[in-house]
Design goal:
The chain is an alpha+beta fold. It is 14% helix and 28% strand. It has a three-stranded antiparallel sheet with strand order 1-2-3, with no helix packed on it. The two termini are 23 Å apart.
């Protein structure tokens, strides 16, 4: 679901840079079925997954991201 929303944004003409990818479609930890919202607080990413009826909380590690590579 996340990657398809990125494709939609690119088609809409927005500048989008994919710097990291996690999970995919599904119900496993790190996977999503209907992202309804995102929020960041300090080094935590909160993902509201409406079709899995949950909020996943992930630690953001900026040093692990290689932007532009």
């Amino acid at each position: 679901m996340a990657s398809s929303s990125i494709r939609r944004q690119k088609k809409a003409g927005e500048n989008v840079l994919l710097v990291a990818k996690i999970g995919g479609v599904g119900g496993a930890p790190g996977s999503f079925n209907g992202i309804a919202g995102l929020s960041v607080a300090d080094d935590l990413l909160f993902v509201a997954d409406s079709l899995n009826a949950r909020v996943q909380i992930m630690l953001i590690n900026p040093s692990a991201l290689e932007v532009g590579k």
